[in-house]
Amino acid sequence: MTLIKSISGIRGTIGGNVGDNLTPVDAVKFASAYGTFLKQNAKSDSKLKVVIGRDARISGPMIHQLVVNTLIGLGIDVIDLGLSTTPTVEVAVPMEGAEGGIILTASHNPKQWNALKLLNAKGEFLSGADGAKILEIADQEAFDFAQVDDLGEIFENEAYMDIHIDEVLKLPLVDVEAVAKRKFKVVVDGVNSSGGVVIPKLLEEMGVEVVKLYCEPNGHFPHNPEPLKEHLGDICKLVVEENADFGIVVDPDVDRLAFISNDGEMFGEEYTLVAVADYVLSKTPGNTVSNMSSSRALRDITEKHNGAYEASAVGEVNVVELMKKTNAIIGGEGNGGIIYPELHYGRDALVGVALFLTYLANQTQTVAEIRAGYPQYFMSKNKIELTPQIDVDAVLKEMEQVYAHENITTIDGVKIDFPTEWVHLRKSNTEPIIRIYTEAPSQVEADALAERFVEELKKIAGI
Q1: Residue 91's domain spans which residues?
Q2: Are 446 and 378 in contact (CB under 8 A)?
Q3: Active-site residue among 8, 32, 107, 290?
Q4: What is the CATH number of the domain that holds 175?
Q5: Is 59 a catalytic residue?
Q6: Tell me: the pLDDT tens digits for 96-130?
Q7: pTM, entire model
Q8: To the nearest 10°, the Cα dihedral for 450, 452, 458, 463?
């Protein structure tokens, strides 16, 4: 069982011992630290507001009650969205004029996990510096709770998923009329969480016929909730059986988006962003950003539209920071995360679905044909487990020196760009592991490149 504290929040498995798992004590302690941080940085003496939403995990109601009442005890008002999504909470924070937000979700982790994801007043994930301050407050337990007359209040507002849908449909590049005319049929796998509610509702408002699969928000995930090919056999089969135009898969908190092509094959998480960016850039040319472990295909598409592409360090907060710096029109991560600043700076599956449907409505090709038309890249993802005695930074530094004559980036580990392929080597923040990501024009080449670097790393590390 595990408890992981990081600058982006706290996540862990339910049950077990305090400090080793996400127990009620840990949930209260971390919520107290976050609320205390907001109070310390308040710009006025007026009562603070925090927006809270959760996915459909079994532990959600328990963690939700603990966090809400902790904030009330600190004298902070809570805007309670109830069952929600990560991007919905991100949209709600600035609309409510709140000082922050918390999403109770462990994203793609299995059902025994839950987490507190923390937002700032813009509805964006906290900076590394702010996250570090919250961890320090939690360690010191430097909390100052409110007197009885100053306790916070709860304001319930369960309309925000509908409000979120309305905001998406108002976007200039979303054409509801064009989509409705095409009478699309789409299968949705909501992994029995919030996406099973909000994605079908969005589709129906766009005139799409919806076939629901695992759309009951009961928190009993019918398969591993990470939207990878090996977990999605049921929807791949159902898309073909229903003769659907395509399938949609989201993770439990609806910030990752994957498509199933009309032939029942994976469109590919890496290509979700590529396809949506292709449409957006065709209408509003500009720059793009993704992280260093994402496909080179986004760079190719961006350059096709005469834009500039840049890669950030891994992590949504890093992608957003670089997007702002480069005035990127669209960006995201290769795990199916679409960030479209026209609405907000956060990964948002609803935005991705609406933009993709509009794109498809203006095409004569099937989804499978659209996918076949993009640059073909294949990825391999591996890792090497090292002993704690090995200096991971020194190993990566030596690898950097070995390949100093190549095109190297070192903002997040070591990335080596070869003419037709690349390798990204980065260390884990929590354990002695080096992750090896490769991409090449074929799966055989990607796997071979990964195997080559695994052996080279082992040689340098002396294992």
Answers
A1: 3-158
A2: yes
A3: 107
A4: 3.40.120.10
A5: no
A6: 999 999 999 999 889 999 999 999 999 999 998 99
A7: 0.94
A8: 110
